[in-house]
Amino acid sequence: MKITKVDCHVLLDPGYDIAATSSAQDDIVVEIHTDEGISGIGESDLNPWIARACILAPGTHTMGLGLAEMLIGQNPLDVEALWQKLYVGSAMNGRRGAVIHAMGALDMALHDLRGKARGRPCYELLGGARRQSITPYASLQPEVSSFREYRESIVQWAVRAQKLGFRAAKAEITPCGPYAHKGLHASHEEMTEVIGAIRRAVGPDFILMVDVQYAFPDADTCLKATRRWADFDLFFMETPLPPDDLDGYARLAHEQTIPIAAGEWLATRFEFLDLMDRGKVRVVQPDVGRVGGLTEAKRVCDLAEQRNLTIVPHLWKSGISIAAAAHLAVTTLNCAFIEFLPSELCESALRKDLVFDELRMVDGVVPLPTRPGLGVELNRDALERFREAAERVSSPRVAV
Question: Cys bridge to 284: 102, 189, 304, 387, which one at CB 3.0-4.6 A?
Answer without folding.
Answer: 304
